[in-house]
Design brief:
The protein is of the alpha/beta class and 214 residues long. The chain contains eight helices and eight strands; from the N terminus they run E-H-E-H-H-H-E-H-E-H-E-E-E-H-E-H.
């Protein structure tokens, strides 16, 4: 089964992707992981991508698409895969379509995890991270026993810049702006499975597998 997993920051894509990997026995393919692996391995595309990353610039679509093309041809993708974080735009979706056509393959489903904006803000802006050991807490859902202190090591907890409410809202606005056309693109092809992303993790997973018919 070949899937794309879409969802805004804080929707729980990573958690659900891991559960799908276990259920379907197919790899999760993340553009971030691909970039890091290509740079580490020193592949031609990895060296090219590193030049942009070192400057703090976005890696161009053609490099990302090249990495995806290489990754999809590996043996572990024979039975399918879960694309996470790609495509992000209609341009990338069109390029992915051409790549799959060249590989004589096609997508089966595009899962869109949908969570109300205010729920996402609450999820992300409530996160706290230990400065010493990196353990994660949430001021509402999983607070530390002592406010501002890590249960594991006693180190101070803090709110990352990326988790501040104003930053979260900007990230969500960018996602909505980029992804709304992408969902329309795949809906026109009958591939989108909209899944409510609120509730307990097992409940959300059951909704996803029901939508996929697994």
């Amino acid at each position: 089964m070949r899937l794309i997993l879409l969802g805004p920051p804080g929707a729980g894509k990573g958690t659900q992707a891991k559960l799908l990997v276990e259920r379907l026995q197919i790899p999760q393919i993340s553009t971030g992981d691909m970039l890091r692996a290509a740079v580490k391995d020193g592949t031609p595309l990895g060296r090219e991508a590193k030049q942009y990353m070192d400057r703090g610039s976005l890696v161009p679509d053609e490099i990302i698409i090249g990495l995806v093309r290489e990754r999809l041809q590996r043996a572990d993708c024979t039975r399918g895969y879960i694309l996470d974080g790609f495509p992000r735009t209609v341009t990338q979706a069109e390029a992915l379509g051409k790549t799959l056509e060249a590989l004589h393959a096609s997508l089966d489903h595009v899962v869109s995890l949908e969570v109300p904006t205010e729920d996402l803000v609450l999820r992300i802006a409530g996160r706290r991270t230990c400065r010493n050991c990196g353990d994660m807490y949430h001021v509402r859902f999983s607070p530390s026993k002592t406010d501002g202190r890590c249960d594991a090591c006693g180190g101070p907890t803090y709110q990352r810049d990326d988790d501040r409410e104003e930053t979260v809202r900007r990230r969500l606005a960018v996602y909505a702006d980029q992804t709304a056309p992408l969902i329309s693109f795949y809906e026109a092809r009958g591939l989108v499975r909209r899944v409510p992303g609120t509730g307990e993790i097992p409940e959300i997973f059951r909704r996803i597998t029901a939508a996929l018919g697994t």
